[in-house]
TrEMBL record:
Key words, A-Z: Isomerase
InterPro entries from the UniProt entry: IolE/XylAMocC-like, Xyl_isomerase-like_sf, Xyl_isomerase-like_TIM-brl
Positions in coiled-coil regions: none
Pfam families: AP_endonuc_2
Protein name: Sugar phosphate isomerase/epimerase
The organism's place on the tree of life at top rank: Bacteria
Domain Xylose isomerase-like TIM barrel: start-end pairs: 49-309
Statement: the UniProt record of this protein carries the keyword Isomerase: yes
GO terms of molecular function: isomerase activity
Length: 322
């Protein structure tokens, strides 16, 4: 396993400066955002596809630094009921798949998306309850009429361009846990795999190790994000884990995202990395940052130090065992 960085952490600076900063901390692998919610500050796939000289320039920029792209990301909602948003996010994803082929990157990370409650809806409708019974009807309509047909289509596109799609389970979208991630993959095929991000599992009280085992046995973990979540037990005891307050109201929220090690300690992260090693995951662990209590650079540096020490120990343990 190698340590990497999701470059949207440093969207405030040009890509070459971001790469130099990342390389200065001994990291040679990057994940680059290409649209959707994180934006495309470092990589606009449409522009690059229309100007392959710029694509070559990006390749040269990485090669000169002995760095490589482990994944391109387009975290949008291509199932959004609003036609303009849906088409924009779909086109971002399709262009990202095409660009991955040009850049010789084999993995594109994205969300599964969430439709509305009908063809005339304006907003996504995330179903989280089995009763009243119309929720079950809505959920089945979403999957049969929107989710499966769309991802079958996109799997075909990904296969055409020699790319695999890593879906990031995320509450608010139709794929948010082990069960519905499995449902999508079984319906669509092995072009679809998992982007494992434990931060979204922690606050649901779901065990990340169980997800690693489930998809690791199938060699279906295509990418990994490193981000933590802090659980406020006092607020959870009052309101549970479903929390719609803004992230700015941290003192009153049941949970919020943190830098690695500030939500769960070293033992939990060692357990997850050991589990990834046990299922023969040999890809990149890509550092994300959504911690409101630290600047991106502070969170980045703390996460690098924390994870590097664990990865070095895991590597040395594996060498000794061999």
């Amino acid at each position: 396993m190698n340590l990497g960085v999701f470059t949207v952490l440093f969207a405030d600076r040009p890509l070459d400066q971001a790469l130099d900063h990342i390389l200065g901390h001994g990291i040679h692998h990057v994940e680059i955002g290409c649209g959707g919610y994180p934006g495309n500050a470092h990589c606009n796939p449409k522009n690059l596809l229309e100007n392959l000289d710029q694509t070559k320039k990006m390749k040269d920029m990485l090669r000169e630094r002995s760095m490589q792209i482990d994944a391109l990301s387009a975290h949008g909602n291509p199932l959004h009921p609003n036609k303009d948003i849906r088409q924009s996010d779909h086109q971002d994803l399709l262009n990202t798949i095409k660009l991955a082929n040009e850049l010789e990157v084999d993995t594109v990370v994205t969300f599964a998306g969430c439709p509305g409650d009908s063809d005339h809806a304006h907003y996504p409708n995330w179903v989280t309850s089995t009763w009243p019974p119309e929720y079950r009807d809505l959920l089945e309509w979403q999957w049969s009429e929107k989710v499966i047909p769309y991802w079958q289509q996109m799997a075909e596109q990904a296969q055409k361009y020699g790319v695999r799609i890593a879906i990031e389970p995320h509450p608010g979208f139709v794929v948010y846990n082990t069960e519905n991630m499995s449902r999508l993959r079984e319906a669509v095929g092995t072009t679809i795999g998992l982007n494992f991000d434990p931060s979204h599992l922690f606050w649901q009280q779901s065990d990340p190790i169980a997800m690693i085992k489930e998809f690791g046995k199938k060699q279906a973990i295509y990418h990994v994000h490193a981000k933590d979540t802090y659980l406020d037990d006092q607020n959870i005891s009052v309101n549970g884990v479903l929390d719609t307050k803004p992230f700015s109201e941290m003192l009153d929220r049941s949970w919020y995202f943190r830098t690695i090690g500030y939500g769960h300690g070293e033992d939990k992260w060692k357990e997850m990395i050991s589990a990834l090693q046990a299922v023969d995951y040999d890809g990149v662990i890509s550092i994300e940052h959504e911690d409101a209590l630290m600047t991106p650079d502070e969170g980045f540096q703390k996460a690098v130090g924390f994870l590097q020490s664990i990865l070095i120990r895991e590597k040395n343990t594996a060498i000794w065992w061999d």
